[in-house]
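Email to the structure team, subject: NADPH oxidase 2 model.

Hi all, the expression group asked for a predicted structure before they design truncation constructs. Nothing fancy, just the tokens so they can compare against earlier work. One-line instruction: predict NADPH oxidase 2, return tokens.
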Amino acid sequence: TWKWVVGPMFLYLCERLVRFWRSQQKVVITKVVIHPFKTIELQMMKKGFKMEVGQYIFVKCPAVSRLEWHPFTLTSAPEEDYFSIHVRIVGDWTEALFNACGCDKQEFQEAWKLPKIAVDGPFGTASEDVFSYETVMLVGAGIGVTPFASVLKSVWYKYCHDATNLKLKKIYFYWLCRDTHAFEWFADLLQSLETQMQERNNAEFLSYNIYLTGWDETQATHFAVHHEEEKDVITGLKQKTLYGRPNWENEFKTIAGKHPGSRIGVFLCGPEGLADTLNKQSISNSEADPRGVHFIFNKENF
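Reply from the structure team: attached below.
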């Protein structure tokens, strides 16, 4: 038995040593941005840190807890000279981090007063393969939208640098959430991308749909009254916010009709129930003919 146990145990110990060494490397918080609804953005730098789109890291703040490590998705793009995470204040640890960063104070916080941060990672996810397809469907549910902040930023940087060599030609983005106010920072990112794409006369590159699943009668009435306005009253985007949940069968059939003979990547960050639905639709809408349209499903759950 010991012959079978020694090998895996040695590899495990090596992995733990590497992670301990990485977590001891110095991390500098370069900027703290306070977003609406108690969400903070930490922009950081670390020597030798290299990331890909959609990856995540583990974060420890010794000033808050010396033992707790928490996973956060990277919301920056690999092309940026820093890496960032968005932290929503929803518990004791995040509340303590919020206070440790001086976000509860009105005055400007000096950089040297910011707490020390330990970072382990980055670690890979399915979202890294997004640039392997010409057409992709990105589906984010609630907080699962965070990996796609990194993806969309990176797409924009690559598009501006050399659009002709970019294999990715079309993005269909779906954002399902109960309340967009909790993620206003992401709506701001979408608004910026929308404006920049229009300035470059390529507004069709990114098609997105925002679905509010936690709506009531009052919100629906307000939506109906303002539906004819140029920009959406909730997000400020030209694309109007939709209520309820998508009809995934119709969405898949429409996309399959627009891109015959293509391999279409379907990327989800969301709950298991939605993953089952999208996986079934990917299979049922893929053709048996190798030359036909095929949906390739990729997921990461939380």
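The chain has a mean pLDDT of 80. The chain has seven helices and twelve strands. Ping us if the truncation boundaries need rechecking.
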